[in-house]
């Protein structure tokens, strides 16, 4: 089974995910938190998975798809522009970066494995989805 944004057809879930993204972009963090809480309460893991897909695919659409190009993961430090790898950032940020990279590379196995890591912690909407939302928004 291919993970496809087109499979995310629940309009209420999509609206909540969109609300969370735009609230984060606009630094309205209380509104973003409210949307994430609603996603969690109403949709649980489905909300986390579908929101992740929608946010990442929005980012890829904005940046542009580079078919055939290598996809690499790097982080740029605010203020210094120093480039670092996943070992130099918070675990949730590293996870989010890896999830974005897996999706951009069309690596479904890694994407699914990373989602399972987050699910296994019991804190999907905390450390993981929140970090992903922040990375996509900036």
- Calculate the terminal CA-CA distance, rounded to whole Å: 31 Å
- Cα radius of gyration in angstroms: 14 Å
Binned strand content = under 5%
Instruction: Please give the number of β-strands.
Output: 2
Poorly predicted tracts of residues: none
The ordered string of helix (H) and strand (E) elements is: HHEEHHH
Shape: globular
- Summarize the amount of helix as a percent range: 55-70%
Average pLDDT, rounded to a whole number, is: 83
Largest sheet entry: 2 strands, antiparallel
SS-based class: mainly alpha
What order do the helices and strands come in, and which of them pair?
Layout: H1 11-25, H2 29-63, E1 75-76, E2 83-84, H3 91-104, H4 108-121, H5 124-137
Antiparallel strand pairs: 1-2
Structure characteristics:
138 residues; mainly alpha; two-stranded antiparallel sheet; 5 helices; 2 strands; globular
């Amino acid at each position: 089974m291919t993970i496809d944004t087109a499979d995310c057809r629940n309009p209420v879930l999509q609206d909540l995910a969109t609300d969370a993204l735009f609230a984060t972009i606009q630094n309205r963090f209380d509104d973003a938190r409210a949307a994430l809480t609603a996603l969690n309460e109403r949709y649980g893991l489905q909300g986390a998975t579908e929101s992740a897909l929608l946010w990442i695919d929005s980012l890829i659409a904005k940046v542009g798809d580079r078919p055939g190009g290598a996809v690499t993961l790097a982080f740029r430090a605010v203020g210094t522009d120093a480039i670092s790898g996943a070992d130099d950032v918070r675990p949730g940020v590293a996870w989010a970066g890896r999830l974005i990279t897996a999706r951009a590379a069309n690596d479904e196995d890694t994407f699914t494995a990373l989602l399972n890591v987050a699910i296994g912690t019991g804190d999907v909407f905390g450390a993981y989805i929140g970090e992903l939302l922040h990375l996509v928004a900036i």
